[in-house]
Specification:
Length: 153
């Protein structure tokens, strides 16, 4: 089982799409093991988007992530990192495939509804960045035998 991080961005909160986003992950069969609302500081965003800090549009991205608080969500499932990333779609909402969150809900590169971890290594780092240990919950979902065959996990 893998764990991964989703941030529901201000673009989703402003457009009342939080439930829509959460519902997609729930219906897929991903287990919510952490969920909280938080305001992102300049320092946290500089770390989280370190690969973009030197870009001319970094301040715009940072400001956009601070328009409202965000929801940080930890999800668990077999191959969860790749599954969640695929469900998000490519960065530019205009190019993202229909059926994906960005493809269905976003017209923008920047205002693209969700952040999702892009590799198992980064998922572990990002979960530590956004959650304290006691904010991640381990519990056995009763529907497990209906989500997976027992040789799948
Ligand atoms: P990702 O979210 O698909 O992993 P990254 O390249 O890691 O994409 O970029 C992080 C976020 O920064 C994007 O989701 C988007 O909100 C914003 N961003 C990335 N590239 C651009 C750009 O060229 N213009 C405006 N915003 C961008
Ligand atoms: Mg990224």
């Amino acid at each position: 089982m893998q764990k991964t991080l989703v941030l529901i961005k201000p673009s989703a909160i402003q457009r009342s799409l939080v439930g829509e986003v959460v519902s997609r992950f729930e219906k897929k069969g991903l287990q919510i093991i952490g969920f909280k609302m938080m305001t992102l500081s300049d320092d946290l965003l500089k770390t989280h988007y370190a690969h973009l800090v030197e870009k001319p549009f970094f301040k715009r991205i940072k400001d956009s992530m601070q328009v409202t608080p965000v929801f940080a969500m930890a999800l668990k499932g077999v191959d969860a990192v790749e599954v969640v990333r695929k469900m998000s779609g490519t960065t530019n909402g205009r190019n993202a495939a229909p059926g994906t969150i960005r493809g269905d809900l976003s017209m923008s590169v920047q205002e693209n509804i969700v952040h999702t971890s892009d590799s198992p290594e980064n998922a572990a780092i990002e979960l530590d960045r956004f959650f304290n240990k006691d904010e991640i919950f381990e519990y056995e979902p009763l529907i497990f035998p209906h989500l997976y065959a027992n040789d799948e996990f």
